[in-house]
Amino acid sequence: MELSVREARAQFATALAAAERGERVTITKNGKPVAEIGPPQVRKGGIDWTKAAQTRARLGIKPPAYPLDEEWRRAFDDPAFSREALGLDDDWEPYRG
Fold first, then answer.
1. What backbone phi and psi angles, to 5 degrees, belong to 13?
2. Residues 41-74: pLDDT tens digits?
3. Strands 25-29, 2-4: parallel, antiparallel or unpaired by DSSP?
4. Cβ proximity of 38 and 23 under 8 Å
5. Beta strands in the chain (DSSP E)
6. For residue 92, what pLDDT is reported?
7. What SS3 state is found at 42?
8. Is the pLDDT at 81 greater than 90, yes or no?
C-alpha cells in the first residue's frame, strides 16, 4: 500500500490495520518514498551462523583449518584470562550502580 503524507494523516488507522495484516505501507512526499510502516521485525536472537559464513566467504576469510585445542578453550573460559586480556587488576570490582 502506498499513501501520500496527507493520506497517511487522514487514514492512519487504515495504514496501521494494513501493517497488522503483515503489509508494508509506504508513505510518500512529492511522489518519493520517505517512510514505511509495517509489522515489526522479529529477531530470533543469537548468531546467524549462515549469514556469518556468507560474510566470511564474501570477504575471503577462511575458517581455521583445525579446531581449537582443549587447552586454549579452557584458558579462554577462565575469568583470569579475560581480566588479563582486558588489563584489569586483581582488585578490580564491577560498577554496581
1. -60, -40
2. 877 778 888 888 899 999 998 877 666 677 777 8
3. parallel
4. yes
5. 2-4, 25-29, 32-37
6. 64
7. coil
8. no
